[in-house]
Specification:
single chain; 379 residues; alpha/beta; 7-stranded mixed β-sheet; 11 helices
Length: 379
């Protein structure tokens, strides 16, 4: 199988992820932070190392502000529900995933919040002047993606974070489509909260995610329970990271995530980005050979993360996805959990697009095979 669905989850995973997960399940399976025997202490060290590796990757200040979550949706819900109060005003964009849109819609109905959407330009990037004008209205929170999971557009997220800081607005950055494959330095991009999945660019197992607190702004914790710390009290701990990690964590997933993080740190994020740019450039060059395909993605190599939305002019997306599946080429058809993005693109009524998303382990030859199929069927 040729795999082009990395925007949903990466495949293959980093080397030794599966082996280390298997070894943990087979030889230890101890709970983290709950016991003092050797296996439990060892797995606690591994979880700490994973936290520290996230800190290193992002150049964050403190590893205890790296919170492990079940996924990016979990992280974003923790941030949004924990920071947005009754009657607040929140600024966002049309290119958000439902992991942002649905929590905001829920709070609009239950906490009477106001949600404003930033205008976008002809290339589907947020219009910064409009974004700043919305910030002048003194909203409490702005939440936005670093990269669209539909178009692959790398948004001007640093400029948006900087403007939030200028106007005293809390910023929540969804870095799910960039973390692990694009340099992100939290000493430079000073978002208050950064959320990501662990199973996309971070090349780890599903069921993993992170919420990184990058300022003195702390969300209110809404999930309480056992943490292995302060067990003498029925009051939930307020120390980091325990206050956000109630219950048994996905230790199995964190073992795998730590393995993939070590792989990424060993190779270097700039090397990974350089390889992705080469793949993106080759993909864009191949597009010149197609006459009947509509492209809904940014074709500026430096502003593209490797996620391309396509629609064929001479057949339905359902027909094309069936052809690709028969040729054992995996991609994704549909709205990609981002309905407002497809309404902006004009692809909502046709059921969305075919999304081809490149990963670190893809090759030029695999891209050539995809385009050979598209060319053969005159897509």
């Amino acid at each position: 199988m040729i795999y082009f669905d990395n925007a949903a989850t990466s495949f293959p995973k980093a080397p030794f992820v599966a082996e280390n997960v298997f070894n943990y399940l087979k030889t230890s399976c101890s709970n983290v932070g709950r016991a003092s025997y050797s296996n439990a202490i060892e797995i606690s060290r591994t979880v700490f190392q994973a936290r520290e590796n996230i800190r290193k990757l992002l150049n964050a200040d403190k590893s205890d502000r790296v919170i492990f979550t079940n996924n990016a949706t979990h992280a974003l819900n923790m941030a949004i529900h924990g920071l947005v109060k009754e009657n607040d005003h929140v600024v966002t964009t049309h290119f958000e995933h439902n992991s942002v849109l649905r929590p905001l819609e829920y709070l609009r109905r239950t906490r009477n919040i106001k949600v404003s959407y930033t205008a976008y330009d002809e290339d589907y990037f947020p219009e910064l002047t409009d974004f700043e004008n919305l910030l002048k209205q003194k909203p409490q929170v702005a939440v936005f993606t670093a990269c669209s999971n539909v178009t692959g557009n790398i948004m001007p997220f640093k400029e948006m974070v900087d403007r939030c800081r200028e106007y005293g607005v809390i910023s929540i950055l969804d870095a799910s489509q960039l973390m692990g494959s694009y340099p992100l330095d939290l000493q430079d991009v000073k978002a208050d909260v950064v959320c990501s999945s662990g199973h996309k660019g971070l090349l780890g197992p599903t069921g993993t995610g992170v919420m990184v607190l990058n300022s003195e702004t702390i969300p209110e914790a809404f999930l309480t329970g056992g943490t292995g710390s302060n067990s003498e009290s029925i009051k939930h701990p307020e120390i980091m990271p325990d206050m956000f990690e109630a219950g048994t964590p996905n230790t199995t997933g964190i073992v795998g995530l730590n393995t993939s993080l070590e792989f990424i740190l060993d190779i270097g994020i700039n090397v990974i980005r350089k390889h992705k740019i080469a793949l993106i450039k080759h993909f864009i060059e191949c597009l010149d050979n197609l006459e009947n395909t509509i492209i809904h993605s940014c074709l500026n190599v430096q502003k593209q993360a490797g996620v391309f939305s396509l629609t064929p002019a001479n057949m339905s997306i359902t027909e094309l996805i069936g052809i690709l599946d028969e040729k054992e080429i995996a991609s994704r058809m549909g709205l990609h959990c981002a309905p407002l993005a497809h309404k902006a693109l004009g692809t909502f009524d046709q059921g969305g697009t075919i999304r081809v998303s490149l990963g670190f382990f893809n090759t030029f030859e695999e891209i050539d095979e995809l385009f050979a199929v598209l060319k053969h069927y005159d897509c």
